[in-house]
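Could someone model sulfopyruvate with this protein?
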Amino acid sequence: MKTVYTCFCTDVIHDGHLNIIEKAHQRGKVIVGCLSDEALIRYNRFPTVSQDERLRLYRSIDGVEEVVLQNDMLYDDVIARLRPDYIVHGDNWLQEPERAIRDHVEALVAAYGGELIDVPYTYSDKVRKIDLQLREKLAMPEYRRKRLRQLIRMTPVVKALEAHSGLTGLIVEKTVVEHDGKLDQFDAMWVSSLCDSTAKGKPDIELVDMTSRFRTIDDIMEVTTKPIIFDGDTGGLAEHFVYTVRSLERMGVSAIIIEDKKGLKKNSLFGTEVEQTQATIEEMSAKIAAGKSAQLTDDFMIIARIESLILEKGMEDALARARAFVQAGADGIMIHSRKKDPAEIVEFCDRFRAEDGDTPIVVVPSSFNTITEEELAGHGVNIVIYANQLTRSAFPAMQKTAEDILRYHRAKEVDDRLMPIKQIITLIDEL
Ligand code: SPV
Ligand code: MG
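Reply:
Sure, complex below.
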């Protein structure tokens, strides 16, 4: 009896999957692989049901002999173990970026005389609708809100990129790349105060009010499903902060990060070049505690951001604050630095982790940008935020275009570096 292997990464079985099982069954004994959560979130979209539920679901399909867990999006381990005569997959993976995975699998099976079969993908209204329903489910506040905590458990490091509009939200949502044969994508969005303010042409001094910041979140939420980490600046007065927490929680935001500063907040990357006042441990702890007692779900996170290294108050001060803020109820600690050398961040993370193995650590490597996500994770970091890179890449490109149109009195000279009109009008999916 021949063996046929297919790997699923779906939460719902539709006609397309049944067709694949049928085609597989015609050739022999069907073994279905269930892509693990950790691999799935890089390869495809976030699961709406647990790994165990997916295993159970696949086992219940008629014609499936065995279900195994596939821990990597590359099939090396599973193929070495099972040596299936055939591997069957929908032909949608002939397209980029999945094509790299497909070609890798083809080479693996060819090496021992196996065969890869690309089954025509089932494009039907029913399949399209199921796909849309899954997407909508992920966008619902109750699913989106808890997703950050789920991600922290599922993946060694959660990767967030800034978004300040529907369009930048879509970039975070949809960008998938193939690198070294594997696919990768961002996990979450960071609604940066710097980029939200900059997009509105305003300074990053808590001038853009909460109503306006919520409007930005709403624009992003309308077109995305990934979880949102909100940059809450100082959080304002504790009496106001509790309302912010409730609003964000209701909207489906996963976390707010508040920094231990008071008075006129300036952007941290100014460091000590401008006057900035750090809140006392007691003031910040009281705000965290007020926020925690206002929140209604277990999903939402209040993360305390420590500015001691930015304000040159020293490592001991940073660590003392971390301890106190966790004690006050903080669900995570963000440690910030504007040094190019990551040494002080690494030292903080190592020392904090030595005494606290659980509390998530968040870092924003804008200045210390040579250290990799993997290295940061090795020092106990759970969330890496790329806080402003989309804004900083878009602005010079737009400015150069404006200058060149003025210079040449026409737009021909800039056309080569523009997205084609045809592409921009089809960039946004319509329902
Ligand atoms: C932001 O993105 O607004 C931040 C991070 O707060 S930083 O600009 O590095 O202070
Ligand atoms: Mg900010």
